Amino acid sequence: QVQLVESGGGLVQAGGSLRLSCAASGATFSISAMGWFRQAPGRSREFVARISRSGSSTSYADSVKGRFTISRDNAKNTVYVQMNSLKPEDTAVYYCAAGPSVVLSQPRYWGQGTQVTVSS
Predict the structure, then answer these.
(1) Rg (alpha carbons) of the chain, rounded to whole number
(2) What number is the average pLDDT over the span 15-29?
(3) Alpha-carbon distance 116 to 99, whole Å?
(4) What percent of the chain stands above pLDDT 70?
């Protein structure tokens, strides 16, 4: 089993920045990729960004490209997402995810979620 704990959410004005962190523990050897999804009220959960185990491969949703950057510190088993130029439509609960697929399809593990609210 793998446990994921997110931190770093909060309230920010449009144009501002936040950095989310996700610390993994447990059977982390089984993880090939980690990433972030988000769910806004009344909407389904959507992919935001992912990063491979080595950190050499990343991908982003079109809606966040150029504004969000995902990174990882393998010594700390922690993944980060730096979110810049935030927009009100980025408001959502952000979930850390991890799984055995390098493209993070159908993540096996999920964090509890952290709220990000962007005011206009």
Answers:
(1) 13
(2) 95
(3) 23
(4) 100
Query: How many Å from the N-terminal Cα to the C-terminal Cα in the chain?
Result: 40
Residues 75-104 have a mean pLDDT of: 95
Tokens of 11: 């309230």
pLDDT bin (cut points 50, 70, 90) of residue 105 is confident
Residue where the block lists tokens 């909407």? 43
Nearest to 50 by CA among 116, 99, 118: 99
Token pair 């593990």: residue: 109
Q: Whose CA is closest to 39, among 105, 103, 97, 100?
A: 97
Amino acid letter, residue 73: D
